[in-house]
Design brief:
The protein is mainly α. It contains 33 helices and eight strands. β6 and β7 form a beta hairpin. Keywords: Coiled coil.
Amino acid sequence: MVCALLVRPSSATSAEPLVFERDVRPLLKTHCFHCHGEEPEVQGSLDVRLVRWMESGGDSGTAVVKGSAEESLLYQRIRDGEMPPDEGKQLSHDEIAIIRQWIDEGAQTARPEPESIDGPLITEEERSYWAFLPIERIDPPSVEAADRARTPIDSFLLSRLEEQGFSYAEEASRLALLRRASIDLTGLPPTLEEAQQFLADEVPGAYERLVDRLLSSPAYGERWGRHWLDVAGYADSEGYNSADAVRNHAFRYRDYVIRAFNADKPFDQFILEQLAGDELVTSPLNNLTPEDAELLAATGFLRMAPDGTGGAVDDAAVARNEVIAETIKIVSTSLMGMTVGCAQCHDHRYDPIPQADYYALRAVFDPALDWKQWKSPRQRLVSMYTDADREVAAEIEAEARKIDAERKKKQDEYIAATFEREVKKLPEEIQDAAREARETPAKERTADQKKLLKKYPSLNVSAGSLYLYDRKAADKLKAMAAKAKELRETKPKEEFIRALVEPPGASPVSFVFFRGDHEQPHEEVAPRGLTVLDLNVELPSIPAKVEGEETTGRRTALAKRLTDPNHPLTARVIANRIWMHHFGRGLVATPGDFGVLGARPTHPQLLDWLARELIESGWSVKHLHRMIMMSAAYRQSTRGDEALVRADPDNELCGRAPLRRLEAEVVRDATLLLTGTLNRELYGPPVPVMADRVGRWVLGIENLNAGRPGKEIALGGGRSTGEALMLMNSDFVLESSTTASAVQFLIDQQEIFASQITSAGKDDKATPELQALASLCHMLLSSNEFLYVE
C-alpha cells in the first residue's frame, strides 16, 4: 500500500524518464535517510540526500554509477536485502525496480542540486503536494443537467458524473429525507408527530424549514458536538493505565462544545478558544466571570490526552512527555489533518515535516505544558469560586461555627454533669481523688490515678460515650451537629474547571530531542508552524513572546495562523469533516491525514470551494450544513443507476445517497426515544458507566463493579411497555402493526410462549401476549429499516 502511494508507474509505460526528486528521493527518504543523511553521524560516510553525494560515495566506494545499476553499490545492497538492515523494512520489488531503472537511465535530477543542505531540504515536488497549495476559489463548472443542480455543490459533482456518462439518482422520498436530515442533524429519528407535520406541509420551502428547525434544535449541538468530541478524544477518565482515574470536571469542556455548536460559534473563534482560551481571559483566575469560566472550559481540548501523572507511574518524566506528545497529535490531526507526531523521533518519512518542525510546534505549548515544571491534573484545576461565593460561604461558616461553639459548650456541660453523677455513686472517701484524676492530663497522671480510672470506667465519660449515660443529652448534641452540617451544605458549591493555563512569565527553552529522547536535548528551537506551508503561502508567524502580554501568547498566535484565510489545511480539514458526516465518507477519505499516506481528494475543486465557502461565511458550520443539505446530491435516493453502481461501487462520484448504518449511540438514543425514556436534559456531570458482576456494562448505577448496590441515576422518563414501543415503531417507521404478517407473527409467538409456561413457573408479568409484543419489538429494532439511514 505504501509503495503504491509513493511511486508512480514504471516508465516502461511512459516515455518520460525517471528523476530523483520525484521518483527516487521519496523511497530513499522513507527507507534510508534516517541513517544516511539526517543524523549527525552519517553511517558509512554515505549521504544519500543528493545524487552527487551518492556518486562521490562513502567508505565502501561509489554508491551510484550513472547508467549502470549493476555497478552501483546502492542498487546492489538494496537488491540483495542488505540495506536497510532491519528485517521487514526492505524495499518492495517495484521500488527496487524503480531505483534500477532510474540509475540505468542516467540517475537524472529534475534540476541542479543545491551546493549544500543546511537543515532539512523540502523539494519543489513536496511543496507542490495538493494539501500544501493555497485554497482556490473556483467557479462551479457548467453542466448539461443544469435542472438537477440546486447548489454550486451539484455543479462540481455532476460535472464529474457527466464526464463518465452518468447523472444523479432520483430524489429520495420525503419520508426518507425527513429521517436522513433528522438523524444527520440531531442524531434522533423523527417522531410520529414530526413525520405527520412534514408530510402534510405542501407549502413550497417545507424542506428548507425542516432543515432550519433541526439546526435550531438543542439536540443539534449534542449530535455535532459528539462528532467534535470524538476528534478531540473526549473521555471522562484519564485512560492512561488500568487505574483509569476519573476526570470529575471534564464535562465542562463537553458542555462548552455543545453550546458552541448550538450557537453556531464561528469555527475560527471555536479554534481560538480551545487552543488559547486562558490567554483570552480578562478576569482574575480567583474571581472568574461566567464568560471567562467558559473560555477556560474551552481549553479542556488541550487536556484530553491520556494523563496518568496524577498517580503512580513507572517514569514520571516519560509520562509527562507522553501527555505533551498526545496533545500535539490531537491538535495536528484534528485541525491540520497532518500526522505531525510521526516527526517526533526523526524527520517525517513521507511528508515534508522535519523533526525540527515537530519541536517548534511543541514549543508553542511548552510554556503551559512544561515537563520540568509539571502540574498534575489536580493541580491544573481552576476554581470557579468568586468573591461573592466566598463571602456567602464565610457568612454561613460563621453561623455554623456559632452552632458548633454552642454545641461544644452544651457537650462540656452534659459531660461534666454526667461525671458528677457517676462520681457521687462512688464511696465518699475517693470522690475527691476521682475528680483530681479526671482533671489531671493523661500524660501527667500517677499510677494510682490511672488505676482508679481503670477500676471505675464510668469516670471516663466522654463525647463518644455520653449516649451510654444520657441518651437525651446525646440526641440534643446530635441534632445540633446535624443543624450545623445542614447549614454548611447551603454554602455555594465549589466547582472546578479542567483547564490549561499558562503561568505568567513562563518561557522555557525548547529543544529538539535526539531520537525523541527527552534526556537528549540537542539544538534549541523557537515556536513556529510547518515550514512547508510558509514556503507556499504567507501566514502569520508565531512569536516567542507577544509584547505587552503576561503570557507568551504563542497559542493565540498558533490559532490565528491556523484560521488565517491563506492557511491551506484548516478550512479544508473542517469542511471535509462536515461533508463526511453527511455522506458517510469525506471528499478526503482519511480526515485526520491529508498527507502522502492519506487518501487523495475525490473532488479537489469541490473541497476547495467548500473550504472557501466556510471561510467567507464567517466560519459558520450551520451555513455549510445548509449548503450541503440543500444540494440535489444530498437529496438523492440510495438506489442509483445500476451501471453507475458497477462502475463506482464505493460511490466516490456521489451518484447516489450512501446507505449508512447508525452509530451505536444513535441506535441507543433512537430506542430510548421510541420507548419514551430518552433523557433530553442538557449538560452536567456524566452518568456512571460501570461493569456489573457478570461483565455487562451498565449506565446510571454506581459501584456495581465493586459488588455493592449503588445509587441509581435516572436516565430518562418513566418506563413504557413493549406494546407502546411496538405501536410507536410500527405507526411511524415500519407501519407493520397494520399488516397481516405482523398480526400473524403475534399470534404465532403467543402460542409458542404459552406452550412454554408451566403453572409452576408462571409469571404474571410475563404473559404470552407481552412476550410476543416484546419479540416483535426486538425484531423491529433489529431491522435494517431501523439500523440504517437511507
